[in-house]
Amino acid sequence: MFELQFNNFGEFLDMGGYAFNVWTVYALFAVFILANLLIPLRRRKQIIRELKRRRIVNEGVTRTGGNPNQNQERNGLNTYPANGIDTVGENQ
Amino acid sequence: MAWLWFSKLGSPKWFYELSGKWLPWLAAAMVAVLSVGVVWGLLFMPPDYQQGFTTRILTIHVAVASMSLAFFPLMAVAGTITLVWKMKLADMVVKTAAPLGAWFSALTLASGSIWGSVMWGTWWEWDGRLTSMLFQFFLLISVISLRSALNDNEAAAKACAVLSIVGCINVVVIKYSVDWWETLHQPASSLSMNTGSVNGPEFWVPTALMMLGMYLFLAVALILSIRNEILERERRAQWVQDLARVA
């Protein structure tokens, strides 16, 4: 049951003459596995980046209207447009 | 009290935390099983007396094809829960399973076709099994399109749930197509316990490993997508905000 089926690497690549068919399917299989793992992982990064960006913008808004202590500290930033902070978030 | 687990299970936060604990183990098991399956299949599986080394295609084809049949039943169960209990998590399963199922169906068709081109002498035939599998691919594309076509999220969830339930009929057709129409695709093989026989363990053990590997892969890929869906839909919830803070 555990007998190696090929004598050398060339035979392995040739797959008994069915190299094109066998290796095409294994290539497609690799694409299938990688795509379905990497696409959601990349999407996750995007979502978290977006969440962070929104949090920065939202906190900027609450700080201008909300907590008076933070208002004093951040007085200079009150006139800061949301866009300015936006860009910082997007560059992360 | 018996219902407590059920309402907990429906909570996206609870699922997010639990799946976060499962993921590393599932992923490790997936890598291990798939590696053994692929190496065994490629290096040690003997050539078939008729098919030669093209059986290396079939370990993948059989594993992916059999798992592709799980999608409609899974989506139908989740869809029923969506319709009856309006559970948010269940609709996320319906939404994320559809594209993954389409990938499974597409690879089933492609690998079968590439095998058939040399073993049957044809890339495509309007045979019962092949046609019903192609139909499953189109049905899954319909579920995806239906959701993006409807602007109202609740209406989209209901429509997709209904289509998922109806789509199960086709799974029965795929399963029995080889018995109903003896046109081209071979029926399920009767396995043998003796090495050296046509369907001996030297063929079905690596195939079974690939099936288990595909099962784990399905779980990992689906959980990854569901977690993204949770973060997107619950983005206003405090716990998601806190998560973005530390991430």
- List the helices and strands of chain B in order: HHHHHHHHH
Beta-strand percentage of chain A?
A: under 5%
Strand content of chain B: under 5%
Subunit organisation of the chains: heterodimer
The major pleated sheet of chain B works out as:
none
| Global Rg of chain B | 20 Å
Largest interface summary? A-B, 33 and 45 residues
- Find the structural class of chain A using helix and strand composition: mainly alpha
Low-pLDDT stretches of chain B are none
Query: What's the N-to-C terminus distance of chain B?
Result: 35 Å
Distance between the termini of chain A: 54 Å
**Radius of gyration of CA atoms of chain A, rounded to a whole number:** 28 Å
- Overall, the morphology of chain B is globular
Mean pLDDT of chain B: 92
Helix content bin of chain A:
over 70%
Helix content of chain B: over 70%
Care to count the β-strands of chain A? 0
Number of helices of chain A: 4
Silhouette of chain A: rod-shaped
Q: What class would the helix/strand composition of chain B place it in?
A: mainly alpha
